[in-house]
Design brief:
Blueprint (H helix, E strand, L loop, with lengths): L6 E6 L5 H11 L3 E6 L4 E3 L8 E3 L5 H18 L2 H11 L15 E4 L2 H13 L7 E6 L6 H20 L3 H16 L4 E6 L1
Parallel strand pairs: 1-2, 1-5, 5-6
Antiparallel strand pairs: 3-4, 6-7
Helix pairs in contact: 1-5, 2-3, 5-6
Length: 194
Amino acid sequence: ESTPPLRLAVVCCNNQNRSMEVHRVLSKRGFSVRSFGTGTVVRLPGPVPDKPNIYDFRTTYDQMYHDLLRKDRHLYTQNGVLHMLERNKRIKPRPERFQSCRDEFDLIITCEERVYDQVVEDMHSREQVTCQPVHVINVDIEDNPEEATVGAFLICKLCQCLQRTADMENDIDGVLLEFEAKSGKTFLHTVCFY
C-alpha cells in the first residue's frame, strides 16, 4: 500500500532563490510542496551590496520584475535576478512568509541555519492544537543560483527516500545519517508539533 504523499515546505530567507529552485524541482517530481521566506521583508541584490532592493511580501514576482527592469535592465540581467524572477512567477504569484502560514506540513526543509532557528522558534511560539509532528531539517545551501540547483537535487533525493520509507518517524534518523555521509554535509533535525 502506498504511503500518502508528504506535505512539504521549503524555507529560505526571501523565498526567491533557494526555496524557489527546490520548489521547482520537487513539484516537477510530483511532490506536494510550498515555499516560504522567513524575512520581515524580501531583499533582492541591488547596485551595491549595502543597497538591496526591498519589497513587501505582498509584492508579486511580476511587479518586482518590472520594477527592476525599469531601474536597470542591464545590471539585473547580468546578475541573474530577472531570470530568477521569470522562473519564480511561473511557479506562483508572489513570495510567502512562513510565519503567516497556518497550514500543516509533514516535513519542513530550511536552507540555512538562521532560517532553521527562525522556523523552530516560530513553531515553538504557536499554540499546539493537533499535536501532529512535523520534522524540521536544515540543509545548508549557499545563496547563489549554482548552489541552489545542486541543493535542490540533494533535497529532492532526500524527500524521495523519506517518501519511500514505510515509517518516517523511525527511519528518518537513519536516512539523514546516510545522506550526511554521501553529501559531506551536516543536517540539523528536530521535531515540532502543531
